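TICKET #2291
ISSUE: user wants both folds in one file
ATTACHMENT 1:
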Amino acid sequence: MTIHGGDGAGTDGVDWDAEAAAFDEDPDHGLRDPEVRAAWAARLRAWLPGRPGAVLDLGCGTGSLSLLAAGRGHRVTGVDRFSAMVALAREKLAGRDAVFLVGDATAPPVGEERYDAVLVRHVLWTLPEPDRALRRWRDPLRPGGRLVLVEGVWGTVSPVGIPAGRLAALLAPLGGRVGVERLSPDTALWGRDVDDERYAVVAVPD
């Protein structure tokens, strides 16, 4: 994931183009550790459709989750607003059935293309109008398609993020089914123990 904001920087003021080369050094970004990679692969296997389909990875960063999805036979389209991140994703998935676009995750430049799943990790909490983003992310879904949203609340003194209950409430107007899966206890996902709120929501809107 990369955090989306104004031109040249994320909402946290970080220049993610400048940070792209070091982005994968975090265990849950680069998924270089076999145990961490296997943990995320197992989660994606459960969250994404069982049959190979089309997956839209928004805020894809360097493409680590895209690579796992492609490894399951899915056709992946990744979108990130930072060109250095997109360049690394293209390199990482060279030869795979994947395409990466520079663009805004809240308004993905995919035209009339439709997808079996829209995958978004650690992006929604940064957005000023998350409800609007969710409506836009529903639009490119095929009937029966699913939103896979990985989010959390980080920090204890000045926490940032979006609680699972709030995200479930934001999804309610879209109808359909919503499931919440707690991720904090699974230390393999993060490469360390964590004590904050981390979770995934899989929603199948009406």
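ATTACHMENT 2:
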Amino acid sequence: MGTEERRRGILETARQDGSVDVNLLAERFQVAKETIRRDLHTLEEHGLVRRTHGGAYPVESAGFETTLAMRTTHHVPQKSRIAKAAADLLGDAETVFVDEGFTPQLIAEALPRDRPLTVVTASLAVATVLADAEKTAVLLLGGRLRGSTMATVDHWATRMLADFVIDLAYVGANGISRQYGLTTPDPAVGEVKAQAMRSARRRVFAGVHSKFGAVSFCRFAGVGDFEAIVTDTGLPSAEAQRYSLLGPNVIRV
């Protein structure tokens, strides 16, 4: 097997399994661990994976996006802490946009049930989480349903969202960087997120540390558009400070 074929195999495995391990890859491809590390380094330089201690995980791009099911298995403890901290930022908001994705779904679960609240969302998962909350009114945006994320997109969703003035938007992203802002692989998803940004008075980004420095295809917001960024302590404090200099309060939990 040649170098390029092996690297394609590594990338396919990462995208299929959600992550790869150096030891297992070396055994599978019958090469030295150092060879695999060089392969991962090259794939990272091309923006296809992000390396971790002992392995790597795939970076979402225009040609690849993880499913909602896959997201429910990665960084779950961190996402749970992030969701609770994000929900604590609700303040006196009465109308809330909750984005698609697993972390926003956890935010929805953490929202208070003892006060009147109106939640707007494109996510069927978020709507389902809140369906039995007696004091919460759920407005589900119409549109084309994306099976991979179970959320609606296209002009039906954006037109409906454009008619609202929302107190607070909880927004997710596939990548966030100081240079390129917040990005997502799919233009249709990016349009919904961009409209949520325009419709909301306040905006909070919630995402795990692995999102930082990652860049996807479609830019929908700048870092300075948010009042707060909520992430986990996997983001170094020095890097958090650099993001805070662009405007938002960076909260690490």
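RESOLUTION: both attachments delivered.
EXTRA DETAIL ON ATTACHMENT 2: The first strand starts at residue 20 and ends at 21.
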